[in-house]
């Protein structure tokens, strides 16, 4: 189960990957360590160029680490070529073989493993059923739609029953509705097959909705590993808070710490309690993060005061951008109701109240 | 009033007519230049040879009979022209071996070029085309300088104390020369296919437990097959009619098809036979090509 530490399927230990030689060296991965549990839906999340695809390629065996080891069920696989690793990949571009039919694509891995023909046939039929593509098994891969190609790519990677399935932004080429469908489909497949999924994406919403755990990466490093809830509500660093969802940053002085809570004095003079990581020392210049939906606008006085600058309607909710008197910008998200508007207008003097459990102190 | 549809149709008809009219001169020239000489050769092959070359305008099937048959000088009975068959077979064999040799050398070369970075690829492409800048005769002489008795190879062999070997004026010499001359014609079409190959498919192959050889056989080769077919055609056809290279490097010991045809138009003074031989070669090439292309296409269907 995701929240209890189980046996690790993949363990990455101190892996560095350097491209180029001499002065032109670039570290795509800078001493990364992560342990991915068995039967887990694990997501590597980060902007492009953060090293998430490099890490995936190292696990797949397309590249080899400059330093460090990669353990699969305790065995170091880092020096093995990709065809000797019980790990399969779903490629971003699907990389289906254009000269083979759907069924031949799915059976390719088993055929290369030297499985008997009857077994391959049975397994291919099973896979076709799993991804609901039975009707199109004899088609060429060029004759099916993008969503269907996606399913074939999944079936092809799952057919040899890998220990770990790697998915490199597999949904990025699909349109919004299809993507939503495939997200649910992927979760279903993961539960049904019980295989560890390592999923790479730059889409934070996708990561939050699908993953058991997420590793947020930036500039070749893993910044934070945790459940979606951890990552969203307790971001450890500014980058994590900023990359995932919308966030308000407030400067505050931390005056006292106890019981996982910090006493923070805001620029407005108000004092609030904020959650804080263990080992944090009080200091005058700390940063607090507050999610827009965890703050409330009031007509009168709140913890902060400011002027409404802009009101943006989003259908399900409304974002109210406030310029605080301290000069900092602040956004409040308010759930919409059918009857009335948001109750504020541009130029209104407003107060912002921050709930007792809403703020989080950043590590840096 | 004509409907919008009728107007559009009329415009389209006019468009098509104009297109044909404008391209007619070019088409006419291409048609005449391509088929005109061939027609003349075809007609000549059914005429009687003149006493000092040229032809007499008198129908005779004799040239066609003597392509493969020999008329006995005493009793006029026909028997198989063993000499012609031998020459045909020798030329076909040389063309096949040349095609295979250039394929074996050219495929890895094209793969190497296609897997370089984009910048260096252009450099390799440029290097491959350099031999085309030089006259065929000069290129052949260059090969001759390397393999002749006092040439580069034998000088080196002598220096390191190994007995020199006779390469020049052997079949090996012809093959070396042919492979050298026709290699770019094999490399370029394969490279063109290979460059378009999505190398993520190769990674996908490795990911699905295919070894390097299996990836080559099951993924790379089927996908670059059009290039291989084109390259083989481009090498086979000129290799079958090669004249300069076999003559110079083979020392004229063994007559090739090209020598035989040249002989008929020269000392043989038998233009109709020369014409008939030329047409026969063309037919052989066409039949071979049709069979090859069709076979290549079918096997692709089977694999796919």
CATH-defined architecture of the largest domain in chain A: 3-Layer(aba) Sandwich
Indicate the overall shape of chain A: globular
Q: Could you name the CATH class of the largest domain in chain B?
A: Mainly Alpha
Q: Count of DSSP E strands of chain A?
A: 20
What is the percentage of strand-forming residues of chain B?
under 5%
CATH superfamily annotation of the largest domain in chain B: MetI-like
Globally, the shape of chain B reads flat
CATH topology of the largest domain in chain A: Rossmann fold
Q: How would you classify the helix and strand content of chain A by structural class?
A: alpha+beta
What is the residue-averaged pLDDT of chain B?
Answer: 88
Helix content of chain A: 10-25%
Average predicted local confidence, pLDDT of chain A = 88
Order of helices and strands of chain B: HEEHEEHHHHHHHHHH
For the biggest β-sheet of chain B, the strand order reads 1-2
């Amino acid at each position: 189960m995701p929240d209890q530490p189980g046996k690790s399927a993949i363990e990455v230990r101190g892996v560095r990957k350097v491209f180029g030689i001499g002065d032109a060296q670039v570290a795509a991965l800078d001493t990364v360590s992560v342990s991915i549990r068995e039967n887990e839906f694990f997501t590597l999340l980060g902007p492009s160029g953060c090293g998430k695809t490099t890490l995936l390629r190292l696990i797949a065996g397309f590249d080899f680490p400059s330093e460090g080891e990669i353990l699969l069920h305790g065995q170091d696989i880092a020096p093995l070529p990709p065809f000797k690793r019980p790990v399969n990949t779903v490629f971003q571009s699907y990389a289906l073989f254009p000269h083979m039919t759907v069924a031949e694509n799915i059976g390719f891995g088993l055929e290369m493993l030297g499985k008997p023909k009857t077994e391959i046939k049975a397994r291919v039929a099973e896979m076709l059923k799993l991804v609901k593509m039975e009707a199109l098994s004899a088609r060429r891969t060029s004759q099916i739609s993008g969503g269907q190609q996606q399913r074939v790519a999944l079936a092809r990677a799952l057919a040899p029953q890998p220990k770990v399935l790697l998915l490199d932004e597999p949904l990025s080429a699909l349109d919004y509705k299809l993507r939503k469908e495939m997200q649910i489909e992927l979760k279903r497949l993961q539960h049904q097959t019980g295989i560890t999924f390592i999923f790479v994406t730059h889409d934070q919403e996708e990561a939050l909705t699908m993953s058991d755990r997420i590793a947020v990466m930036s500039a070749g490093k893993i910044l934070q590993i945790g459940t979606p809830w951890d990552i969203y509500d307790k971001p450890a660093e500014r980058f994590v808070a900023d990359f995932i969802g919308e966030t308000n940053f407030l400067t505050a002085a931390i005056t006292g710490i106890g019981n996982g809570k910090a006493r923070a004095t805001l620029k407005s003079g108000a004092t609030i309690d904020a959650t804080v990581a263990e080992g944090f020392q009080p200091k005058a210049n700390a940063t607090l993060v507050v999610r827009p939906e965890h703050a409330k606008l009031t007509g009168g006085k709140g913890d902060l005061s400011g002027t409404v600058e802009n009101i943006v309607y989003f259908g399900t909710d409304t974002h109210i951008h406030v310029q605080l008197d301290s000069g900092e910008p602040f956004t409040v998200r308010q759930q919409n109701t059918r009857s009335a508007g948001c109750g504020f207008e541009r130029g209104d003097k407003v107060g912002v109240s921050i709930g007792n459990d809403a703020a989080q102190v950043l590590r840096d | 009033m004509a409907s919008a549809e009728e107007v559009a149709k009329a415009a389209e008809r006019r468009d098509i007519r104009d297109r044909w009219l404008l391209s007619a001169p070019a088409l006419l020239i291409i048609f005449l230049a391509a088929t005109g000489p061939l027609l003349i050769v075809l007609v000549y092959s059914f005429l009687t040879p003149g006493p000092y070359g040229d032809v007499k305008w008198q129908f005779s099937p004799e040239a066609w009979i003597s392509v493969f048959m020999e008329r006995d000088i005493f009793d006029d009975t026909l028997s198989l022209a063993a000499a012609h068959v031998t020459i045909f077979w020798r030329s076909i064999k040389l063309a096949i071996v040349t095609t295979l040799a250039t394929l074996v050398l050219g495929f890895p070369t094209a793969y190497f070029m296609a897997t370089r970075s984009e910048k260096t690829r252009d450099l390799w492409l440029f290097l491959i085309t350099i031999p085309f800048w030089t006259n065929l005769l000069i290129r052949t002489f260059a090969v001759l300088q390397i393999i002749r008795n006092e040439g580069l190879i034998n000088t080196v062999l002598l220096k390191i104390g190994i007995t020199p070997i006779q390469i020049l004026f052997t079949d090996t010499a012809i093959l070396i020369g042919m492979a050298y001359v026709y290699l770019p014609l094999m490399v370029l079409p394969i490279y063109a296919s290979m460059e378009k190959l999505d190398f993520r498919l190769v990674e996908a192959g490795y990911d699905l437990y295919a070894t390097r050889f299996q990836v080559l056989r099951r993924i790379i080769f089927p996908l670059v097959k059009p290039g291989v077919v084109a390259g083989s055609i481009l090498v086979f056809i000129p290799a079958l009619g090669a004249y300069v290279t076999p003559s110079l490097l083979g020392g004229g010991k063994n007559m090739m098809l090209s020598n035989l045809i040249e002989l008929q138009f020269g000392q043989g003074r038998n233009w109709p036979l020369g014409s008939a031989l030329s047409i026969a070669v063309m037919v052989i090439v066409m039949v071979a090509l049709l069979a090859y292309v069709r076979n290549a296409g079918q096997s692709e269907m089977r694999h796919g």
